[in-house]
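Bug report (template v2)

What were you trying to do?
Predict the complex of my protein with zinc ion.

What happened?
Run completed; filing so the output is reviewed.

Input:
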Amino acid sequence: MTPSARPALAWIAAATTALGMLATAAAPALAASSVPAASTPAPSTSTAPTAAAGTQADPLDSPRWEDMRKSFFADATVVFDERVRVSGPAVAEDSLNVPVSVDASGLPAVEELIVFADFNPIVKALRFEPGAAQPRLGFRIKLQQSSPVRAAARTADGVWHVGGAWVTATGGGCTLPSVGSGSPEWQERLNEVNGKLWPRVDGGERLRMRIIHPMDTGLAAGIPAFHIEDIVITDAEGRTLSRIQPLEPVSENPSFTLDLRAAAPGARLHVAGRDNNGNRIDAWVTR
Amino acid sequence: MSRSASSAPALHRRPAVRALRSLLAGLLFALCTLLAISPPVHAEDFDYRLQPRELAPGAWVVVGLKEDFSFANGGNIVNTGFIVGSEGVIVIDTGSSKRYGEQMLAAIRRVTPLPIVLVVNTHQHPDHFLGNQAFPRATLAALPETIAAIRSEGEGFNANMYRLNGDWMRDTEVVVPERALAAGRQRIGGRDVELRALGGHTVADLVVIDHDSGTVYAADLLFHDRTPTTPHADIARWLAALDTLEGLPARRWVPGHGEPATDLAPLRQTRDYLGWLAQTIRAGAESGQDMTELFQTPIPPRFAGLALVNEEFRRSVVHLFPAAERAVLEAARAKASR
Ligand SMILES: [Zn+2]
């Protein structure tokens, strides 16, 4: 028996900010119930549509929602929509690797998806342009503390549809992770793509891949942010199929699951991209 | 096929990271501990009400609840044991807190005035060593790998236990055992005792065999009507350890969690569940499942009697899936590069 063995130290970050962060970490539920939901002044624009999430109560009842809405969506129309599903564990066993799947395939014409966690010190986790893929994506993130994890899908009409789930990170925060990137191996293998394709019964193609990268957040003192920022998936003829833009909260050695609507010609796909220091990603993935 | 890219090893950054991380860990541990001491107290007297049971003459067990850590149980979810010889007492695990250790020692004193001659921590998990403070330091012993793991991970475990068990943990500190044990059979405290060094639940799992009574203290290599936990597990090695255990001339088994038994039920249960778990995770990785899809796997009805099976299965997926996934994806890349 053991309580969670390796929660989020690297993520927890600079000692100077740790106290404040942990203070909120200790009592997310308390914060949620003690801050009146309507305490944030309404946006000054009078053009906000009535159905927008500005007037809908946040189903996750997070005191941070109003800030999230302002910073991500500004004056755009935002609705809470159960067709955007976020699945993950109710309780994070490993705060450095919280598995999350987002699924907006119940919506028509999703052009863009973003994922964020209200209470993470870096809120936004990634952006996803599904393109020729289903608007759903599996990945893992680091969670600093209990938080809503949300996905927002923008449909062709410009409306953002938001869904989410609370993830409790009780195991999190205080123990030393055994981070493999302390070994020299990562340097030789940086941006190495280990991936595989699986044909799907619906005629599509599943891509799973794991990319070697430390994905440092920049919040730990002396360790600058170092993360993959762009991944483009193309087919053998060079057509761009899909794009993932991860940010710091995506877990070390990130792994992704995505489903392309059609089988890959030649049963192979190309993965290209770069990290924020300009190191390239360039690999083929086959069945 | 293509080798990932990048790059000249002119990779920007990161030398002294390790040291810094340790430093931060220490600091954060202190902070976490400070912040964790305020939860409401459920049991005012902080009495675990430990009731030692004598399974055979001189072979004792203190059976814990089949639960997860909580403020309500204060961490009393583990089985501890002690063997009373003609000259002294051997203690097998010390429980989840300083209070547990103290109350265990008091319970032993209700049974015998003989000196404590050996206290073993069977493995690195906190419910098995956080009571060490209550016992004479010179008697504390464990396998070398366990000592190393308690030294490196003990503080982190302790901080988490404060959060999970609240004030039951008050004043609990990590005491790293100093004596390294080796496998072998010898007389200890006047008793014919054998130590076996196995592993698989963690890097090192000590089994204590009391030959005088035929009692095997198998610690967390065995779970009984309680789902096995896997945060440091190597399932293949664990299954091999079960085969070894099955060959022992035992008359009774003390699992780390759940009721003691006079038959192989705990061993068969643990083996059955671990086999299913490993197979399920391997099949999931090989068929391209995402971790969140694997969470949805139906649990076979034969495991319905294992306490906490739904929770522990998902936790085990988090522990074990990344390695299975990595194996599948790295094999695919190797194949593609040929
Ligand atoms: Zn254990």
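What did the reviewer find?
Chain A touches chain B through 73 residues (CB under 8 Å). Chain A has five helices and 15 strands.
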